[in-house]
Amino acid sequence: MTATLNDIRHGYGDVEVLHGVDLDLPAGELVALLGPSGSGKTTLLAIAGGLLTPTGGTVHINEAPLYVDGKVDRKAAGDTAYVLQASSLIGFLTVRDNLLVRDITAGRRTTDADRERAADLLDAVDLRSKADRYPSQLSGGERQRAAVAAALYTQAPVILADEPTAALDRHRGRAVMELLARHAHERNAAVLVCTHDERALDLADRVLRIEDGRLG
Questions:
Q1: Which of 138, 168, 169, 205 has a C-alpha 20 to 30 A away from that of 63?
Q2: Angle, vertex CA 19, rays to CA 15 and CA 68, nearest 5
Q3: End-to-end distance of the chain based on CA atoms, in angstroms?
Q4: CA-CA distance, 146 to 151, in Å (whole number)?
Q5: d(CA 147, CA 84)
Q6: What molecular functions are annotated in GO for this chain (predicted)?
Q7: pLDDT tens-digit map of 164-177
Q8: Which of 181, 158, 187 is closest to 64 using CA atoms?
Q9: What confidence tens digit (pLDDT) does each residue in 100-141 have?
């Protein structure tokens, strides 16, 4: 599974934020995208995940167009999982159920194996003891780690993470990047991490930089 962005443009009013960005995200790679605040990296990630329609250019998920006639193709979008800067957790669900929610909404009964996999992921982000808590009962860093675990639980072939280590110390930030790298390599997934944190870039297969809406 690959994600390909061609000639992506986006603007707000008369201000163009992205200026014809081309980006290939091949299966089996973790790509780190660095850039300062306002560089366009979050906008690019939102377009790659089907959250923001570009004003120009195309996005393909495994050769299928993500945007068709200005609307998101739900099948293509279903192959992506997104970790937002602000917590993407559902407030009225427990941490455990935030991992299981895609199974629940799809009408699929969760199995013991599903729950064990969820528990293992929570253990990997040091949250197993807080599985029954609600997002409001977690710290900012704990919510961030839970959101990463929820995205990985989906086993999506394309993972898009916006500043997943921003609220984490060096040790936990590296552990999260290791999990994302492992998902890319073991699941043959395409993983894009937008960040300004350079502490664990050695785990990325490629490091790209964006500034003023252009890849350097």
A1: 205
A2: 95
A3: 25
A4: 9
A5: 8
A6: ATP binding; ATP hydrolysis activity; transmembrane transporter activity
A7: 998 899 999 999 99
A8: 158
A9: 987 777 677 888 999 999 999 999 999 999 999 999 999 999
Does a structural domain hold residue 60?
no
Other CB atoms closer than 10 Å to residue 85's CB: what's the count?
16
Residue type, 21: V
DSSP summary character for residue 128: G
Give domain status of residue 128, yes or no.
yes
With 0.85 as the threshold, say if the pTM is over it: yes
Over the stretch 42-68, which tens digit does the pLDDT of each residue have?
999 999 999 999 999 999 998 899 999
- In a domain? residue 86: yes
* Structure token pair of residue 189: 């997934």
Domain hosting 81: range is 28-51+73-215
Look up the CATH number of the domain holding residue 119: 3.40.50.300
How many domains does the chain divide into? 1
